[in-house]
Design goal:
Blueprint lengths: L4 H25 L2 H57 L5 H82 L4 H13 L5 E5 L2 E2 L4 E2 L2 H9 L6 E2 L6 E4 L5 H6 L1
Parallel strand pairs: 1-5
Antiparallel strand pairs: 1-2, 2-3, 4-5
Helix pairs in contact: 1-3, 2-3
């Protein structure tokens, strides 16, 4: 392939812009702010689920406590009625009086048991409520962190997008200065070699594969016409000759 040396030199500019676009694309995909926001979103989702479960536990504990308190009230009310009947003097039968006293004693024991159950239920309710309060506080903290991380992520992404648009505009200008056939060849090589199609020959070394050319290879490049597109024998990328290639220095020896 033939192309003016100026057009070949512009390939280096184009490669630099494409490499920068690749770098910006990778940076956009691997933003630490995005990873932080994603991790906080996962924590937030987990906390939402834990909050629902905690709210359910509080509701269940409160219902058990109300049930225990209602049972105590019912037993206490019955014991009060029996005590008033006994104290009213209306019961004259010794047998009935003994039976009533026995029931009052039994109700007293039952009331003590139920009051113990109420205390236990209250403890469970307090524990469940404390856990719910803790989860709510943690959720607020994580939500605040997530909001801030999203803002940082969006700011960083916007800056990258601005850079990409700037580089893309520069690329469009450079593309206009490169012959169509050379540009198509460049794009084909980019697809084959991980986005790097062209590299300068600097001090006898291909900057594409970082390998030094042999004396025979250097002589072949030196003998090539100025408008000939030369390629590295090692990595097969286009090698652009520059003032730093070292070819002139070799020619003088």
């Amino acid at each position: 392939m033939k192309a003016e040396s100026a057009a070949q030199a512009r390939l280096l500019d184009l490669q630099g812009l494409d490499t920068e676009l690749q770098r910006l694309g990778h940076k956009a995909r691997t933003l630490p702010e995005a990873a932080e926001a994603a991790e906080l979103k996962k924590r937030l989702d987990r906390l939402e689920s834990e909050l629902i479960a905690a709210q359910t536990r509080v509701g269940d504990a409160e219902r058990r406590q109300r049930k225990a308190e209602a049972d105590v009230d019912q037993v206490r009310a019955r014991a009060d009625r029996n005590t008033k009947r006994m104290e009213s003097g209306q019961i004259t039968s010794a047998k009935d009086l003994q039976s009533l006293q026995s029931e009052i004693a039994s109700l007293g024991r039952r009331q003590a048991e139920l009051e113990e159950a109420v205390l236990e239920a209250m403890e469970h309710t307090e524990e469940a409520a404390a856990e719910l309060a803790r989860l709510k506080a943690e959720r607020e903290e994580v939500l605040s962190g997530h909001t801030a991380a999203v803002a940082r992520r969006d700011t960083a992404a916007a800056e990258i997008q601005w850079d990409r648009e700037r580089v893309t505009r520069d690329r469009e200008r450079v593309v206009q200065e490169i012959p169509e056939g050379l540009l198509a060849f460049y794009e084909k090589l980019r697809d084959q070699y991980d986005g790097v199609a062209v590299a300068p020959l600097r001090y006898g070394r291909c900057e594409g594969c970082k390998l030094a050319l042999s004396t025979v290879e250097l002589n072949e490049v030196r003998a090539a016409a100025e408008d000939e597109v030369v390629r590295c024998e090692n990595c097969r990328r286009i090698m652009v000759r520059t003032a730093e290639s070292g070819l002139a220095a070799k020619a003088e020896q």
